[in-house]
């Protein structure tokens, strides 16, 4: 049975014709028809093909099985090949149908005349030979021809297609899309124009506000210049610091040399509470509290030398003019405090043997946390001051009394109170002040 099956499969796979009984060739054009027979019937109606032999000896059962498996694999490969060719034919046929429905090089719809060109006037797809081998060869040639013509048609379509040749629905869709895009673009342009207008208005308003502020500052400078020119003498002016802020202050242009002793005197008028703040501060690199006079919060007035503190028995927050002087020497750190010409306190051991460092910044009305800056509004001086003078020695008590009762004019030999030596910032103002006798009316 296995030998019979092997012979049958071998004959089918190789395409060879069946042989007749006794090994005779079948006549050309004839064919065999096999029918099922009972097991005990004679096989006269369906002659069997000869079983292949090797050297006149029937092959063994194992060899027949191997042959059957090989033939089965061959048949499966042929089936797969035929299936792939069928898929290719279907794909090309679909493309061909689309090409036929598309306009040709002359702008007219295709008529399918390419079929007759391939067969010289005959429909080649309908007149293919019936032999499978020839059919496959013919199909291969036809497929290649179709592929060539399809590529030509695609090139022609790309070269000749235009907007006018598009379908109406596609043209309407494109027009709607273009309309939408145009409306979106116009809307965006309108938004940008509105933003531009708003920005222009804001810029104009900001510019106008800035110009107004600058004009006010220029007017204020002009007033100050007029006020300065109205001073009867260079020292007849006062500095007004009416608000407790961190930006109103005055600055002495000159700095201090190295000092081993000093006397600082000034006129003050303040009713600020609690504490009048900081009438003046001197800061140097590495020490922001080199010299500071401050009344902060509910604390008494303090004199700081190199960050060392001495409390002074002074009381000046009654809103009247008071003349204040403090003296200090590095020898034993001795200090004295005078109010309105009278010595109210003295002490020692305030930063003894520490010379005052040179090259610092002297500020009126603010306490410095760094050299020339970092002011604290809670420590700012509120009020008016005048006649701020510094000497590089300890003045005698009678000299201080004479200055306080206006019987003598003694400018400081280190820092004198003159107009061109005092700059003001942040809204602080300079005003002319009457004679010393008029200031003494508050005493």
Helix and strand arrangement:
Layout: H1 2-14, H2 61-101, H3 114-118, H4 132-160, H5 168-229, E1 237-241, E2 249-252, E3 261-269, E4 277-284, E5 287-295, E6 302-305, E7 308-311, E8 321-329, E9 334-339, E10 342-347, E11 361-364, E12 383-391, H6 397-404, E13 422-425, E14 429-432, H7 436-439
Antiparallel strand pairs: 1-12, 1-14, 2-11, 2-13, 3-8, 3-12, 4-5, 4-11, 5-6, 6-7, 8-9, 9-10
What is the subunit arrangement here? single chain
Q: In percent, how helical is the residue content?
A: 25-40%
Secondary structure class reads alpha+beta
Question: Major beta sheet, specifics?
Answer: 7 strands, antiparallel
Query: What is the approximate shape?
Result: elongated
Strand order of the largest sheet: 10-9-8-3-12-1-14
- Return the average pLDDT rounded to an integer: 75
Runs with pLDDT <50, length 5+? 1-26, 42-49, 111-130
Strand content: 15-25%
Question: Compute the gyration radius: what is it?
Answer: 59 Å
Strands, total number: 14
Order of helices and strands: HHHHHEEEEEEEEEEEEHEEH
| Count of helical regions | 7
End-to-end gap: 147 Å
What can you see in these coordinates?
The chain is α+β, with helices and mostly antiparallel strands and 443 residues long. The protein contains 7 helices and 14 strands. A hairpin with a 2-residue loop joins strand 9 and strand 10 (342-347). Helix 2 packs parallel to helix 4 (132-160).
